[in-house]
Amino acid sequence: MDIILYLLQLIQQLYQQNCFLIKFICKYIPLKQWAFDDSHSPKYQKFKIDELPRIDNFKQDWDWKDLLSYYKQRYGKKIKPIFRRVECDIPQDCTCPACNAPVLYLSWNDGKKKSQIRCKVCQTHFSPTKDNRFSKTTKLRCPHCSHILVPKKDRKHFIVHKCVNDKCPYYLHNLKKVDKKDLKEDYGKNKYKLHYIYREFQIDFFKMDLNTLPKNASSL
Ligand SMILES: [Zn+2]
Ligand SMILES: [Zn+2]
Fold this sequence. Notes:
By secondary structure, the protein is an alpha+beta fold. It has helices at 3-28, 64-75, 169-177, 180-184; strands at 54-57, 106-108, 117-119, 125-126, 138-141, 150-154, 158-162, 197-201. The chain folds into two domains: 38-57 and 137-214, no CATH class; 64-126, no CATH class.
């Protein structure tokens, strides 16, 4: 069939469906009631998905090759790979976390202790373990008050990051809507979700098999 003809037919079909839906809304859904809807009640705040956090990325966009050519142009100096008297025992796949320089430019900074590596290109000192100060190159911030979010709960498939700032405008706004009785109770506030939260999912949704999803995967 001609593609144009096919598309025209499809548009007509969609248009008819649209007309049907508009009629359906007019007939069965009392639009006026929306104004009195209790969906804004703080009780339902738990089901609300907060907007995305602000993400700070500390990773700079230059690397060791840029630095080498910068030194050469600015100071006429060529940085050579480290001259070694003994064989290097830094793992071959180790790179500088700041400028990505390969192992040729890395040396131990603390002699026999071997707990700190120094990068000859950018002079950064770092620990050879994976969990060093460079392992987190991003920080999540609350979109309402810019405070750094605190990872509060570690669920099976996601981490809950929370804004714990008591002066956060989002929190104060939600607090105003809460029943005064609940505020007097011990832990009364816990009935509501008042702080900004962000769920960082750790599973790859593209590789997920929907049929083998665990039972409590949807638990909040
Ligand atoms: Zn470096
Ligand atoms: Zn906040």
